[in-house]
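[scheduler] slot 2 assigned
[scheduler] job type: sequence-to-structure, two independent chains
[scheduler] chain ordering preserved from manifest
[runner] begin chain α
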Amino acid sequence: MKNFSKLLFLLLAVAIASCSKNDKIETVPLRDYALQYTADLDSINKFIDTHYMTVTPELDVTFAKIDASAQPSIRQQSDFPLQFKTVTQGTIDYKVYYINFREGANRQPTKLDSVYVTYKGELLSGTSFDQAQTPIWFELDKVVKGWPEIVPMFKTGFYDNSGDQSNPTSFTDFGAGVMFLPSALGYYGSTSQSGSIPLYSPLIFSFKLMELRYTDHDGDGILSKDEVANPGDDPELYDTDGDGTPNYRDVDDDGDGYLTKFEIRENGVITFPTCPGGTISKHLDPTCH
């Protein structure tokens, strides 16, 4: 891996423009998001229509500009169909193109979990700015915004124990794909510490999803993905007591003054008990504890 910190979420409200002789820092407003998205989408579409891709049996991918031999473009090729997901940020619906090389065959992460991945990050120019050829762990809610939107659409693989037992990077049937991110789902008006990612750059990430760890952000004994009313609900939107802190980060989900981690236990065992005559767990019922 060239630089782990490059993938970490670094978006800032402003970018430093210049300093006066009195060391007064001036700032430059960020570009209009809607206008920048229009420009980003145009650049991504042009890349997809003027480049072809080569996918190896190991599901590594490379891109090259179409030449006189007229290879099918990324959009035209049919081995791995180009797909897209609409991602809403603020008032803008972003069209995020992605390609599924293999879905994966094991467990599926949510946007709140940690994933064990290999990856490569590239600019549309073909410049590689970051990569990890052996798997590393990332917390999906702490990286660029595009990752928690696309990676959870894939599944992990299985550890391959048929070969070298000392090699923890050997997995089979893992998910693998590539995503094309508008700059607002990457670094937007910020750049990497080394300056290798220019401002407002659309990004390409290819990745392989090996393993995951389900996360318990508030340490209450309930996995963050499960702090919802119904399986599959978005944990970021579920706030029982309406205090502005979603349950997965709230140590007292119902706001009754008693910690969730104690209200879900009975005789020290997690059983999600209800109050007499009640129908929901104590940790979601502010009238009893």
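[runner] end chain α
[runner] begin chain β
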Amino acid sequence: MDYCQQEWRGNTSHAECIRKGYEAVSHKFISIRRVRGDNYCALRATLFQALSQACHLPQCLQQEDLTSLPEKLMVRYEWITRWRLRHAWPSKMESLMDEIKDCLMLLKRKWKNMTDIKLFVERQAACDELFRSEEEEYKLYEAVKFLMLSTAIQLYEDSEKGKEVPVFSWLLFARDTSSNPFQLMENHLNQLGHTGGLEQVEMFLLAYALQHTIQVYRLYKYKTEEFITLYPNDPKETWPMVTLITEDDRHYNIPSRMCEETSL
């Protein structure tokens, strides 16, 4: 609430709504962890929460062919060679495959390391350390983005075959800018972290890719049915849940049950 009073001092109805939202959140959470405000913030907040409470590897990281996933997809979909890495465009297909494979294995290794730490405080400290290593941090985001692409391809193929898919998948591919996985990669995933963040429908895709339910307190939606939004809205019972907080659906922070204000 101290943080809220500092940030929202105005007398407008919008400021009042945000303050009421923070008050409601404060009944369950003690403090807030501020997340760095760039175009990775939704990924950063979600991944930090998932790792800091990790008890086991998600199924997507347990698959035996994880290391061969980039090659398998690139053989079938040549356009994946246009994947945009954070630092550079590889000059050869093999180097891109190696880069993505390295990112996926780093994510699996770091996630496994977190599951081996049994005390929450120690796991939180390990996450703090991990997210201070910029090179490793952004490799984790590349891995998550590629898992999102792989998930989108699977959903698209299932839909084309007439299989049942989640409603968000229809919405994801109903956009003019992402009517198929190639457009999704080119116009959205390639821009994620560079010129844009996650759109609402892509929060569902992130949840499916990581096999976590993402619960978001959307403060500007206070007193509406969308104040607490779940991605997906029919969560799987076996999926762990992470909780985020947003004032505008663009920047995300983390509500914390520990009594301290921290930054990420």
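[runner] end chain β
[qc] chain β: The two ends are 19 Å apart (CA to CA).
[scheduler] slot 2 released
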